[in-house]
């Protein structure tokens, strides 16, 4: 089943090209829960075969991620928490989950919009509390683009060098190493911020 889905994504990305990458990453980054791996890894694989341009694939993936995140941001910015609680159940956002997202954002501040873009399962939803808090849009877009860009680049590299039949265990180790790096960067950021105060 998974191989069939992967083949479908490879074919779709191949047919729709960069527009397909942008649209799929927009959906993945907004409200439609499916893993970005099934979009960007096949794109990297196609780039390794010379069927796509790696830089354009990166720009399309990162641009789609930012657009989806901004969509979520504005949903909460203009319509508030009630809208998410009312319709969130259709995309697996419960009140309990929403509270966790808000608590995380309130605890870690604006930097969470960067580091959460690198955490699978959370990356799609950190835009919601940012919108509720009416975070500065420029800062939100900057942190989101940086985080999404790193994630997209990693997925493209996996597809480019390892293909679609990549070792899942190796990929987990890559993600784990990335999370450790994110934790270190976050700690440095918090330390510098406190030092300035």
Verbal overview:
Helix 3 crosses helix 7 (137-162). The chain has helices at 2-29, 37-48, 54-87, 95-108, 112-115, 127-132, 137-162, 168-196. The chain is an all-alpha fold and 197 residues long. It has one domain. The model has no long low-confidence stretch (mean pLDDT 79). 78% of the residues lie in helices and 0% in strands. The chain starts with a helix and ends with a helix. The protein is built from eight helices and no strands.
Instruction: Enumerate how many helices there are, as a single number.
Output: 8
How many beta strands in the DSSP annotation?
Answer: 0
Strand content: under 5%
**Average pLDDT over all residues:** 79
> Shape from CA axes?
globular
Structural class label = mainly alpha
Number of domains: 1
Helix content: over 70%
Q: Element order, helices and strands?
A: HHHHHHHH
Uncertain regions spanning at least 5 consecutive residues: none
Radius of gyration, CA atoms, in whole angstroms: 17 Å
Q: State the separation between the terminal residues, measured CA to CA.
A: 54 Å
Architecture blueprint of SSEs:
Blueprint: H1 2-29, H2 37-48, H3 54-87, H4 95-108, H5 112-115, H6 127-132, H7 137-162, H8 168-196
Give a summary of the structure in a few sentences.
Helices cover 78% and strands 0% of the residues.
Quickly list its features.
197 residues; mainly alpha; 8 helices; 0% strand; globular
């Amino acid at each position: 089943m998974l191989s069939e889905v992967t083949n479908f994504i490879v074919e779709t990305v191949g047919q729709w090209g960069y527009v397909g990458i942008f649209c799929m990453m927009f959906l993945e980054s907004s409200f439609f829960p499916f893993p970005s791996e099934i979009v960007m890894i096949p794109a990297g694989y196609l780039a390794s075969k010379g069927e796509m341009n790696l830089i354009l694939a990166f720009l399309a993936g990162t641009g789609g991620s930012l657009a989806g995140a901004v969509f979520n941001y504005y949903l909460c910015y203009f319509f508030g928490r009630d809208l998410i609680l009312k319709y969130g159940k259709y995309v697996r956002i419960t009140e309990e989950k929403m509270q966790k997202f808000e608590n995380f954002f309130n605890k870690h501040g604006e930097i969470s919009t960067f580091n959460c873009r690198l955490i699978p399962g959370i990356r799609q939803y950190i835009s919601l509390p940012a919108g509720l808090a009416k975070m500065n849009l420029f800062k939100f877009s900057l942190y989101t683009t940086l985080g999404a860009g790193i994630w997209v680049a990693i997925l493209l590299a996996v597809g480019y060098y390892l293909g679609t039949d990549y070792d899942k265990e190796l990929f987990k180790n890559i993600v784990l190493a990335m999370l450790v790096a994110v934790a270190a960067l976050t700690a440095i950021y918090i330390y510098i911020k406190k030092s300035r105060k």
